[in-house]
Amino acid sequence: MSSTTQKSFTPRASEVTHTWRLVDADGQTLGRLATRIATLLRGKHRVTFSTHIDTGDPVIVLNASKIKVTGRKLQAKQYVRHSGYPGGMRTESLERLLARRPEEVIRRAVRGMVPQNRLGEQMMRKLH
What we know:
The chain has 5 helices and 4 strands. By secondary structure, it is of the alpha+beta class.
């Protein structure tokens, strides 16, 4: 009998190659599109995926203003931010933010799907 050893593979940062990806957002649903983008940014589409190394690809999103949302989300979904001062809470509907800055809608959706740490920040810098 021969003894077989199984070795686990861990990619090194120097070995990872990044290929630019183009994603067309025209007519796509916001959440499903954000999931696809987050998967590409994290590198989960690769065989060499590792949780502690950024193995993902840079992503360019085209036609961000032409995304679709289902139901009443255009009016009902609110984006909230607070200045830190009393009475400093500001809310904005999805419809208004989509008209003003469509790329920000996609950026915020993808941000919630990548790790909430320095690695996630590094991945978000590859979203264009």
